[in-house]
Write a structure and sequence with these properties.
The protein has 204 residues and is mainly alpha-helical. It is built from seven helices and three strands. Helix 1 (10-17) crosses helix 2 and helix 3 runs antiparallel to helix 5. The chain is elongated.
Length: 204
């Protein structure tokens, strides 16, 4: 089984991405963000790879970098006694020049651009796979399969009524038990094959 689902409210996830809740709702409709049902609410599936790719992309665009959701609880504050910087700390501070600060900013900007490019690439790859039909949500797949299984079940229950007259005629005509059983199996196999083909055609 895959890792346990970690869920967030849409408002909290929007805050982490640095966007509005309306933007998150649009992303959900476009399948850029994955949700799961919790009661009557649609919660954000936070640790899903598609959701994570969207989060990284938006944080790179907005400059909003947040800690993981499970660390978002306030920790008790402890009073600390202010300490004067020692001589070694003062010397280290004096060595930091404006040029060093500029280089650090440039380094962070480059890293931010790299993360954005990686996030864009991940989203594009997932979108291509989705268009090819390689990605199907398990809820959607389950709904499709059970829909056709229900129909197959109904046909199986009605099958005896459909073939009862034929069975009586076969018995009267002296047809062997083996031949009659074979005819029944062929009819059942035909219904199963038809249902299987319908499911495959719907998924593809």
């Amino acid at each position: 089984m895959s890792q346990q689902e970690e869920v967030l409210t849409q408002s909290k996830f929007a805050e982490m991405c640095g966007v509005t809740r309306q933007s998150i709702q649009k992303a959900i409709k476009k399948k850029y963000v994955i949700t799961v049902k919790r009661g009557r609410f649609n919660m954000i599936h936070f640790n899903h790879e598609v959701t994570q790719a969207y989060l990284i992309k938006k944080q790179a665009e907005t400059g909003t970098w947040s800690k993981p959701a499970h660390q978002d609880q306030k920790q008790p504050k402890t009073r600390k006694t202010a300490k004067k910087p020692g001589k070694n700390q003062q010397k280290a501070a004096e060595k930091v020049s404006p040029e060093d600060s500029l280089q650090e900013l440039q380094r962070k900007k480059v890293l931010q651009e790299i993360r954005k490019i990686q996030a864009d690439a991940s989203l594009k790859e997932l979108k291509v796979e989705e268009q090819k039909g390689l990605l199907i949500e398990k809820e959607t797949l389950g709904a499709i399969v059970f829909q056709y299984l229900d129909a197959l079940n109904m046909n199986m229950l009605e099958y005896p009524e459909m073939v009862i007259d034929t069975l009586i005629d076969n018995v009267k005509s002296g047809k062997s038990r083996g031949d009659i059983s074979l005819d029944l199996r062929k009819g059942i196999e035909s219904m199963i094959k038809k249902t299987k083909a319908q499911i495959i055609d719907r998924i593809e």
